[in-house]
Design goal:
By secondary structure, this protein is an all-alpha fold. Helices cover about 55% and strands about 0% of the residues. α2 runs antiparallel to α3 (about 45-65). It starts with 7 loop residues before the first helix and ends with a helix.
Length: about 180
């Protein structure tokens, strides 16, 4: 066993981070994490603290705010029921009651802004509102694109713009008329 972990009880007594047990502690840990991640170049010890705080915050949120299972609409219905809310309470997140109704009936997909607002309101991961049928893909095909440009002709013929071509035609016509007049 390393000397650092020789006496974990002393570590906790001296203020080492521990499991988060309340939303108040979550807020404190989150503020500490934000302070560390705002630094342009965190030290190795600061990076370890970032990793630990991220793990502790993630664990607490997973336990405290589990992501419901089901289609996005089923998840939203579960969240409404869990929080004792009616569908009309979602108007601020969707913008208007008509859009709320369309989404709840499955006639319209969630948008990115809907998902962001709903996940913030219900304290769930945005992933709760995605599935295989979502308009927003779960996975994006990030295949390499060809770096070669499209083949172009060596010397493409010069195009004359319509005004230039029209001006040339008028000039030629005038020249022909002058020739007849002489």
């Amino acid at each position: 066993m390393s000397s650092t972990l020789a006496n974990p009880v002393d570590m906790i007594r001296s203020g080492a981070p521990r499991l988060i047990r309340s939303d108040k502690e979550l807020a404190e840990y989150t503020q500490a994490l934000l302070g560390l991640t705002a630094k342009p170049k965190p030290s190795a010890a600061e990076q370890e603290a970032i990793n630990l705080l991220t793990l502790l915050i993630g664990h607490y949120e997973t336990v405290r705010y589990p992501v419901p299972k089901g289609t996005p609409v089923e998840v939203l219905r579960q969240l409404l029921k869990r929080n004792g809310l009616l569908q009309s309470a979602l108007t601020p997140e969707f913008g208007c009651s008509a859009v709320t109704s369309q989404v709840m009936r499955g006639e319209r997909h969630f948008t990115r802004s809907h998902i962001a607002r709903l996940s913030k309101r219900f304290h769930v991961s945005p992933a709760a509102f995605f599935d295989e049928t979502s308009a927003i893909p779960l996975h994006r095909d990030m295949g390499k694109k060809s770096a070669r440009p499209k083949a172009r002709p060596a010397n493409p013929p010069a195009k004359k713009s319509a005004p230039v071509a029209a001006q040339k035609a008028v000039t030629q016509k005038r020249g022909a008329q002058k020739g007849r007049a002489q």
